[in-house]
Structures
1.
Amino acid sequence: MEISQSLGLCPDKLKAVFIRRIGESRFKLWFDQRVRFILGNDCLKVLVPNRHLLDWLNTRFRADLEHCAREVFEKTLKILFEIAEEKEIKAGEKGLTQVHLENGEQSQAPTPVQLSHDSSPRRKPAWEGFESFFPGENNRNSWETSRRFASGKAVHCNPLVLFGPSGCGKTHLLGAIYKEVKRNPALGSVHYLTAEDFTFQFVSAVQKGRVPSFRSKYHFANLLLLDDCQFLADKPATQKEFLLTMDGVLRHGGLLAVSLDGHPRLTKRLLPEIADRLGAGVVCPMVNDDSMGRKDFIQGFWRKLNSEPLPDDVVNFLLKKFQGNIRELQGLLRQVANQAAITSLPPNRDLVHRASAGYVFSAIRKWSMAEIEGAVCQLASLPGGGLRKPLRDRASGLWRSLAIYLCRKWNGATFRAIGIFFGNQNHSTVIAAEKRIQKLLEQKVVVSLGTAAMPLSLAISQVESNLKRAGG
């Protein structure tokens, strides 16, 4: 199918498919009124105003564009990123554009695909409050600290750092802080930003010569909340700017709260100066594996979806079978609610089992023993394969016990198979290692990781988070 034959319907369709794939907020942030798309017979040109944006979009969105173009045009297109003047990008709105094809021919194309969105203000997130967060035992300290921080009763917690794996509730608590503080207009300027927002705004300020205005806006904030700070790790210039922003906020008496997926000291390529300043505040670990918190969450979230109460045996089934994070658990409950609405049946055990069977078992990832051992070695700063060799110190023995415990949890291998993998140990040694970790978890033991220390439960969450990030 020649693209030129179907251009009449393509702009709206390509725009809709692309927004559906990457999300409306990301589209507005990176493409709205900044990028122009031109279609040729075998290519899709992406015109951008500068080299920085070109490199960013090429790295982050090329695969998405290829997928959307293939879906709309039923053929594979080459995606070509080019730098164009802003006036040239805007000129595309006024009429036809000459498209240069690879074979040297020229064709007169209709108005190029404009993936620009309406100019209405960006919709603010509908933040949940503290009352809808179900902390359980392990996350209660983070929840209480965040509440006190938002109420102004914990100024000694400045800066506040929330860290833990994806889906444990970090963004929820930052949003709850924002919502609580915004109720009092007298507190002045309050800003919530993701690391991506901060990066984009800083780069835009540099390009337009508005860095002083950017710094004035954030350095004098009464409260600055930065979500997913770890995404600044590969951006040295942005990190240095954030360091100045941190100093400005704290120097002028403002409050600062950030979230990361790991302890600041263990976040790779994060400036030591940033880690130092974050470590000078209150660092609150958060975890996913909290059965009491999960039980409260399941019951509370279900009440939003269905008026029928969820029986206790169904809740216990979900707690036993499902190992994903809170976001995945939300998706599972929505799936069950949808099945109940379609069939008009009560949410009993049979209905939940049928609705969730494929979802539950596909959500549980079985990592290999080698992957688990490698992730534990990475966290403990041990050489790869080090836990399979004879161990000479007690600390290494703890990490091998942890690796054995996780192999039993996530791999399901037999005691004998795990023993052979970890240096030809007998099955009694494997059983003892698993029981050792279970006992240490009950005792809420804190383990040492170089210059940092964290609860053993959080170390386990950190290993699992690294495994998910590495292998999906």
Note: The longest helix spans residues 51-73.
2.
Amino acid sequence: MSSSDQDDTSQDERSGSAPEEGDADFTKAWNEGQESEDELEQTFFLLPLDGESLPTNFGRFELLSIIGKGGFGTVFLAHDSQLDRDVAVKIPRQGVLETDADINRFYREARSGARLRHANICPIYDVGEYCGHHYIVMGYIEGHSLSRFNKPVGAKSAALITLKLADALTEAHDRGIIHRDLKPSNIMIEAKRKEPVILDFGLARDFVHDSNITQDGQVFGTPTYMSPEQARGATADIGPKSDIYSLGVILYELVAGRPPAEGSTAEVLVHILTKEPEPPSKRQTDLDPTIDSICMKAMARDMADRFGSMKDFAVTLKGYLTRLDRKGPAGGEAEEELKPKETKQRVDAASETLPSDEAPTEKSKIEFSCPKCRLPVRTPGSFAGKKGMCPNCNAVVQIPRQAERQASRPAPSGLSGLSLQAASPTPDSSIIRIEFSCPYCRRPVRTPRGAAGKKGKCPSCGAIVDIPIIRTM
């Protein structure tokens, strides 16, 4: 072979030119090799990626950086070259979507989440597959997660944040979508709008291995925000009230500075399954007693004792914020006259001052628990026997007369009355009310005279205590 022939051969090899006709087998092999080379760039994509591997192309997306990792997968900040915008691309980790049924449900739930339209819910833009890796595309929220903010915050700020989240969750629940994994790290505070935004809707948490659940159903990590039914693994019971519980824990942490249950996984699970959380006011003594009651109702271990729906939770928070807005410049609550039912009268919210036991007058107050939301309300005594609108839940309620309200008045500091149990000797009929401190949590408790000498459940800590006959009011 001449030097020129060698040069020509080398040039042909370098340029990848086709072999001469006549060698059919070699031609076929060469063509297959060319096809493999052409497809290599489209099929070669390996996970997991680390920061040093970025940026890299992922279909039409350029993965720029890792912005989050969890039990479900990895979230990347990416640029959508087709629409020329930044997005968040979440790619499930290996083993999350194992079967065709898992994959089909993943797509179905992603489509359900994509139908949600709310300012406080992160939008879902797309779902698809690239090189065997399924992915979901969401809006990129610039800001920080709620878990990174200093706590506690003021009761009003906490209630406002929680209200916005409750409104967003109401929209989802009305469409039959449950989040199931509410926690501060799944809530972003958008830097520009200063609004809370819920992430991770549409990830089908009824079938994927949740960040706190292993493949065999065991819990790992710290399931701080899990509802009792989730901690038990009672799948059939998980529903909207599970989200209510988790949102209640978030509200609790905002006002108390830390969540109600802390410790190892086992310790947290035991606490969730066997104990009532202590009131947030036990940790923040100057906390508004009404927000105390709202937290405890949302986090009731028994689902029947929680708010009836996320909408009820939101309405109660609105009522609480309305009461705060009515306060005067000196911190006292502005007077508001009740009007006849036809004009949608309202009942003044509860305060620490109890009405006297004389016959109602224009200046006396009637204090009682709303029969719907069980939160305390107060109204001028002249409206006894009329109807008014509860400022907490907006329900129209009957305002009790003097004789009716002896057993309906709420305990001080926004507490509910005692749940009485076994019978005991009849107390002195001259006693009207009994007020004492719970020997366990030291919070004040008040109960009707008929409870003297009996046992009751403290509405603050849940302990069963003896009700003494100590003083009259």
Note: The chain has a mean pLDDT of 75.
